[in-house]
Input
Amino acid sequence: MSVLVLAACLIAVLSPLLALRWPAGLLLRRWRWAWLIWASLALQIVIIDIHLPGILSEVLHVGTYVAALAFLWLNREVRGTLVVAAGALSNGVTIALNGGVLPASADATAAAGIDPDHAFANTAVIEDPVLPWLGDVFAWPDPLPLSNTFSIGDVLIVVGVAIVAWSSSRPLRGERAATAASSPATSDER
Output
């Protein structure tokens, strides 16, 4: 998962604050096996930043999606997690079918200013990719901050995170306080 997608997910989590709502359900929820998602994200950072021998990077990359999907399945009753799971499944299957790499469009990679000749990355321009339309075919172009490529799976992940954040948000002011402040005092209260 790219820094761009992580930043978009953070914006999605915080977006209810713009409507004076707190994403309490997302942030305070007791998630089942939460360590799976944190381990998955941490491992993705490691495999992208550190060159590992042989096919270890590719195998671990696919493994991060398996762990993330397990976490999402265990928490599927939360509105929006199945949308996140659809995005993760789209990316994970495409990565697995392409040897541990999410195929990227050459045009999207060029627009994002990414050097196609760098070492292992979670995405790359490859010859004859399987399911290329599920790869990184969109670009957040250079010179914008966090320029990168992204996939339809990434879009689903961000939309799913937004659904989770908004569907479990609560007003910043308590419901009783808001109701009391907006209703006129009765003769008994005077």
